[in-house]
Design a protein that fits this description.
Number of domains: 3
Shape: globular
Order of helices and strands: HHHHHHHHHHHHHHHHHHHHHHHHHHHH
Largest sheet: none
Strand content: under 5%
Number of strands: 0
């Protein structure tokens, strides 16, 4: 009996110690989750903003769960099947579309439920941030601080308080466990853990395409992060093997993406030249770092003009700053800090690679920091831990470090709570851009459109004119004023605004897209005013400056209205090569053109293709079906 007591008592002590450690870890994990909910809960009273008006309120796709299988074969914006502007859509995000369909089934158009889902996803991502940080550092205090800082970072308002901004939290909800299972695989060697990582990575890709950056982090870990006596060549071989496994779901995703979008690339036609886009990357990174560490200036717009020369201070100074930071991180010789830095820059890389797609006002966007910010919050937590280990303040050193951490959480949390309300609706969103940048022309132009959509045309016109007072070359202001005049029936005034804009804006690589848009709109206005020759001239000029589907399509319509069906056919067929397969109107337009040209067999073929791909709720499907029947029967078609 004595021996039995001696043998079981230590076991009981070990069990109690393990239980206590588990309880403590649970508390450490729960604290940041609670803080995430508290700091984001005021977003529940927001309405819908910006893209939400179309993605939620105007999206027929999400209104029926029977549409869910189509999420894997169409793009995010394919529901706008009659507007050619949205055919330049390279967003293939089935998990996002499925989430919205489920949200609609549960909440309809009541915004509170949609915002609640965003808050809960953010809270879960915060929990996962703790879990991954714990796996990296093995220290509860550092992991809790990493997750807490992640929970309250003000830049996350755009991703959490904006319903359509959920793509990044949704991706991180799958990407963080992917990385966690990979790290566990490295420690334990169990192949099923790597299998879990691969499966979750595939789902992350289906949430947002930027998840494709994660294998680069994995490659870094294989080559440099894990302490190993293995020769570098062997590490390269091991990394290659693991990357091949990650390449399999990547290839499947790219194939699915191609089937849905008809394109292999991850972005559309560039608006701006490649060289200035590359030269602007250091400046953009510095701005992103600033948004992570300096808690002010948060806005929907962060104007960043393209850097056009390699000897410009806007290129050299940011580059020098980044090199200094990189050398400092390397000299500190902290594996965990270097991993945080690599995570930040790699997860930010897809946004940096897409700079040529965005207007200067949107080169830097806060939602793109949601995934990279985990690396920065980990680095800050490590810095506070380092501060706690110094002897600068004697016995009070830990107290000072704790006070710094608490102050940072309180300040960031307060700013986040304020930023959540900025996303109340589209109007408040753009009013905040003015408050942050009162001298920014595009901010006033954006507010102008919000006023117009809210039913305040006079305020809209005044804001657009303010934009022109600030910058006589603000294309968005000219386009908005022209649109308002056209909607009021003042076609001559609408044309005048565009003519003034074209005269004011110098032509060059950086203005090509704006000028092409203005020429296109001006050509269509001349067509409405029966000024046919001038209209054709402006439309062809638009195509010359920027060949693109929307210009070919509208030029084809212009020719069709003039009875020039052969010219219309050429433009429609050119359009067909550059739009996704689901864009049904191009088939209908081609069918009508072929019929007008007397080519009945080809007209029939195009009518049939239209009926195959047109949305089920298309109002003209039945009339098109009857018309096709009459064509096949040889009867005279009736309108």
């Amino acid at each position: 009996m004595t021996n039995a007591v001696i043998e079981t008592e230590p076991e009981s002590i070990r069990t109690r110690l393990a239980r206590n450690r588990g309880v403590r870890r649970g508390i450490y994990a729960l604290v940041p989750v609670i803080i995430a909910v508290i700091s984001s809960i005021n977003s529940l009273w927001n309405y819908f903003a910006s893209d939400d008006l179309q993605q939620v309120l105007g999206n027929p796709f999400i209104k029926s769960l029977s549409n869910l299988p189509a999420a894997f074969t169409t793009s995010v914006w394919s529901f706008t099947a009659t507007d050619i502007v949205f055919t330049a859509d390279f967003y293939f995000r089935p998990v996002f579309s499925i989430l919205f369909a489920i949200n609609y089934a549960l909440f309809g158009t009541a915004p509170l439920g949609w915002h609640l889902v965003n808050v809960l996803i953010h809270a879960l991502v915060t929990l996962l941030a703790y879990v991954v940080a714990q796996e990296i550092t093995g220290r509860n205090w550092v992991s809790m601080l990493t997750a807490t800082l992640f929970a309250v970072h003000p830049a996350h308002a755009e991703s959490v308080a904006w319903v359509s901004g959920v793509t990044d939290p949704l991706m991180m909800l799958l990407l963080l466990p992917t990385f966690y299972f990979y790290l566990r695989f490295q420690k334990r060697g169990a192949k099923y853990l790597l299998g879990c990582a691969i499966a979750l990575y595939f789902l992350a890709l289906l949430s947002k395409e930027t998840a494709v950056a994660l294998p680069v982090v994995v490659a870094y870990c294989e080559l440099f992060y894990f302490e190993s006596e293995t020769a570098f060549k062997q590490r390269v071989i091991r990394a290659a093997r693991i990357l091949v496994l990650f390449a399999i779901p990547t290839a499947v995703y790219i194939l699915m993406r191609y089937q849905a979008l008809g394109a292999l690339d991850f972005a559309g036609q560039s608006r701006y030249p490649l060289i200035p886009s590359l030269l602007t990357i250091p400046l953009a990174i510095v701005k992103y770092v600033g948004l992570m560490v300096l808690p002010w200036g948060y806005s929907y717009q962060h104007r960043t003009d393209f850097v056009e020369s390699p000897v410009s201070p806007l290129f050299l100074v940011p580059l020098a700053l980044l090199l200094l930071v990189a050398m400092a991180v390397a000299r500190l010789k902290s594996r965990e800090l270097r991993l945080g830095a690599v995570w930040f820059i790699v997860m930010l890389a897809p946004a940096l690679a897409s700079l040529s797609q965005f207007e200067p006002a949107y080169l830097v966007q806060e939602r793109y920091l949601y995934a990279p910010s985990f690396g920065v919050t980990l680095a800050i937590a490590l810095g506070i831990e380092w501060l706690a280990g110094r002897d600068w303040f004697g016995a009070r050193n830990r107290i000072v470090a704790g006070a710094v951490a608490v102050l940072l959480v309180l300040v960031w949390g307060a700013i986040l709570i304020r930023q959540n309300r900025v996303w109340d609706d589209t109007l408040s969103l753009h009013q905040n851009t003015i408050a942050v940048s009162p001298r920014e022309p595009l901010a006033h132009a954006s507010l102008s459109r919000s006023y117009y959509e809210a039913g305040w045309p006079r305020k809209a016109e005044a804001s657009a004119l303010t934009a022109l007072d600030l910058d006589s070359r603000c294309a968005a202001a000219y386009l908005s004023l022209s649109y308002y005049a056209r909607m009021s029936g003042k076609l001559d005034q609408a044309s005048k605004y565009l003519e003034d804009g074209i005269a004011a804006i110098p032509e060059g690589p950086m203005t090509r897209h704006d000028l092409a848009t203005m020429y296109l709109n001006l050509g269509l206005l001349y067509g409405q005013r029966k000024m046919v020759d001038l209209g054709e001239q402006k439309l062809l000029r638009s195509i010359e400056i920027s060949p693109r589907a929307v210009a070919w399509y509208h030029t084809a319509q212009f020719y069709s209205e003039q009875g020039r069906f052969e010219d219309a056919r050429v433009m429609y067929e050119q359009t067909l090569k550059h739009v996704p397969h689901w864009f049904a109107p191009i088939r209908l337009r081609l069918a009508m053109t072929y019929e007008s040209m007397g080519d009945i067999p080809r007209a029939q073929s195009e009518f049939e293709k239209y009926l195959e791909i047109a949305p089920s709720d298309a109002t003209d499907k039945e009339s098109v079906r009857r018309h096709l029947t009459s064509l096949k029967g040889g009867a005279s078609p009736k309108n």
